UniProtKB/TrEMBL annotation:
Compositional bias annotation for Polar residues: 331-341
GO cellular component: cytoplasm
Any GO BP annotation: carbohydrate metabolic process
Entry's EC annotation: 5.1.3.15
Domain of life (superkingdom): Eukaryota
Organism name: Zizania palustris
Family statement drawn from the similarity comment of this UniProt entry: Belongs to the glucose-6-phosphate 1-epimerase family.
Key words of the record: Isomerase
GO molecular function per UniProt: glucose-6-phosphate 1-epimerase activity
Region Disordered: start-end pairs: 1-27, 321-341
Protein name: glucose-6-phosphate 1-epimerase
A Pfam cross-reference name: Aldose_epim
Length: 341
């Protein structure tokens, strides 16, 4: 734990012990499930987010009405060294088993530190609801992946309630050797029912089907709908993807930078029952659409740095002739690329 983190936690525990009132600001460091440390972000209009230092794992993102937008399993285990089931796990330095490490790498199973001085990212002038976290390799990490790195992550809430994650990974190897990695923001979205959801923006693209030994296919549908287990890596994807929830009349818009691929996953009933940290019927209320860099590994020489950005927004969907109009949603939600920060 960093000294900054320790001081903040000690201050909160002291206030609680004396019964002193505490006013929740835009950033609060506190204890979560099983005593694990977490950072709570609050935006003035009412939206919020929670980030556990274990895994630098976003476990909650609520809109201004307090409605939860991310899915976390009721059976999720908040205890090292088990990854938290749901939210936004960080997959680094390996996605799935694209390499020799444990599935999805080790970043989601490590405790990160809060970084405050100096700020690793530009400090926004209009919004204070953000936190900066850092992961450095331990001796055990270097044994299984012998590369020195600095991984910095900023999690921020925008003035409109958008959730933004920016990752910066730097090669700090002293031996002059490059390293390569794959990466994903493994985002679990909360939905009404999987049968009421469609994913727009991946039409006509090639994908690797993880259910068929990563055989390569081309998407033939005008949208992705779900009728059984689905686990695909879409390649060369656009910077914006829409997840349309008909029943909730809501659309999630996923914007990304530096992440050319997108994973779409739902385990369906059989696999759900086989997972000990996932409810048998919970597959109906979640869908994963993940911004990723998988097919082509990212390679960094010593001193080089890579940045991967994700911005999530939830916008109302309107019906037109009995159908949602995804083109209108995407058009209305378009933002300049440099606004993703």
């Amino acid at each position: 734990m960093s000294s900054t983190t320790a001081a903040a936690v000690a201050g909160e525990e002291s206030a609680a012990a004396t019964g002193a009132p505490t006013e929740a600001g835009p950033v609060e460091l506190c204890r979560g499930t099983n005593g694990l440390e977490k950072v709570v972000l609050r935006e003035v209009r009412g939206s919020s987010a929670e980030v556990y230092l274990y895994g630098s794992h976003v476990t909650s993102w609520k809109d201004e009405h307090g409605e939860e937008l991310l899915f976390v399993s009721n059976k999720a285990i908040f205890k090292p060294s088990k990854a938290i089931r749901g939210g936004i796990p960080i997959c680094f330095p390996q996605f799935s088993n694209f390499g020799n490490l444990e599935s999805h790498g080790f970043a989601r199973n490590r405790t990160w530190s809060v970084e405050t001085d100096p700020p690793p990212f530009p400090v926004p002038t209009s919004n204070r609801a953000y936190t900066d976290l850092i992961l450095l390799p331990t001796e055990e990490d270097l044994k299984i992946w012998p590369h020195s790195f600095e991984f910095r992550l900023r999690v921020a809430l925008g003035p409109g309630g958008d959730l933004m994650l920016t990752s910066r990974i730097r090669n700090t190897n002293a031996d002059g050797k490059p390293f390569s990695f794959t990466f994903a923001y493994h985002t679990y979205f909360s939905i009404s029912d999987i049968s009421e959801v469609r994913v727009e923006g991946l039409e006509t693209l090639d994908y690797l089907d993880n259910l068929k030994d990563r055989a390569r296919f081309t998407e033939q549908g005008d949208a992705i709908v779900f009728e059984s287990e689905l686990d695909r890596i879409y390649l060369g994807t656009p910077s914006k993807i829409a997840i349309i929830d008909h029943e909730k009349k809501r659309t999630f818009v996923v914007r990304k930078g530096g992440l050319p691929d997108a994973v779409v996953w739902n385990p369906w009933d059989k696999k759900a029952k086989a997972m000990s940290d996932f409810g048998d019927d919970e597959y109906k209320r979640m869908v994963c659409v993940e911004a990723a860099a998988i097919e082509k590994q990212i390679t960094l020489k010593p001193g080089e740095e890579w940045t991967g950005k994700l911005e999530l927004s939830a916008v109302p969907s309107s019906y037109y002739s009995g159908q949602l109009d995804p083109d209108r949603v995407l058009q209305d939600s378009t933002v300049p690329e440099d606004s993703i920060s």
